[in-house]
Amino acid sequence: MGGAEMGIPLPGELGQRARDILAGRITPVPARDAATVVLLRDDPLEVYLLKRKATMAFAAGAYVFPGGSVDPRDADHAIAWAGPTPAEWAERFHVDKPMARALVCAAVRETFEESGVLLAGPDPETVVADTTGEGWEADRLALIARTLSFADFLDRRGLVLRSDLLKAWAHWITPEIETRRFDTRFFIAALPEGQRTRDVGGEADTVVWTTPADALAQAEAGEINLMPPTFHTLTEMAVFERIDRVFATDRKITTFMPSAAEVDGHIVLVVPDIDYRVPGAGA
């Protein structure tokens, strides 16, 4: 049964909050700008997923792609840049240039923070070959703590951000019923040659490389939890056999925002225009 047809049941406190928002008794919280990166590797095509800790306030226990909120310093003009310009990214995501710059920087920063993979190099044609070691780890932790800005991190190491290693993919906005909301742009990136992901801890207690099909099968069997944006993106990735075909795809950015609705007396979350299978509900 597709989530777009019947909706996802919203029981308990979340269901009551949805009723209150639909009735105008509660004002939705604003959504924070964020970036998410679908990190891929070939032979076979696999995606990198993190399982968020059960103690997290948002998406607890869910398997997600690396990503997070924009840091205001991500828009810093001091960041060394190679590849498509902020103006080009602004056109792709329908935002202004400062926000486009911030989103791309947040995508690269968050990927490094949550996987150890860095989409940057000493010059516009190369990429860092190895990000392991105590010095890299100290910088990664400082970025997470926000005691080090991404611009200062790149400058200190003489690195250039490689925006050409990213592809714009999607735009999702957290439903208004949530107490934490994000206005998230999705990017695609390939694992750079020589680099490797590692279990970096922090917000995640498990990290995995898996084929999109295997992740979807586990979700439909109720073995793992995937939120609608992750489920839908994995569904899209499952039709590809190699990364180069993903990057060659002509992509038009569509905005999705699931919304609460009352159906036959029950409050459900409707995810428009996609097929999201509720675990255990069948095809």
TrEMBL record:
InterPro entries associated with the record: NUDIX_hydrolase-like_dom_sf (IPR015797), NUDIX_hydrolase_dom (IPR000086), NUDT19 (IPR039121)
Gene Ontology molecular-function annotations: hydrolase activity, acting on acid anhydrides, in phosphorus-containing anhydrides; metal ion binding
Cofactors that this protein relies on: Mg(2+); Mn(2+)
Residue span(s) of domain Nudix hydrolase: 30-232
Keyword annotations: Hydrolase, Magnesium, Manganese, Metal-binding
Stored CDD domains: NUDIX_AcylCoAdiphos_Nudt19
Domain of life: Bacteria
Protein known as: Nudix hydrolase domain-containing protein
Organism name: Planotetraspora thailandica
Lineage, opening ranks: Bacteria, Bacillati, Actinomycetota, Actinomycetes, Streptosporangiales
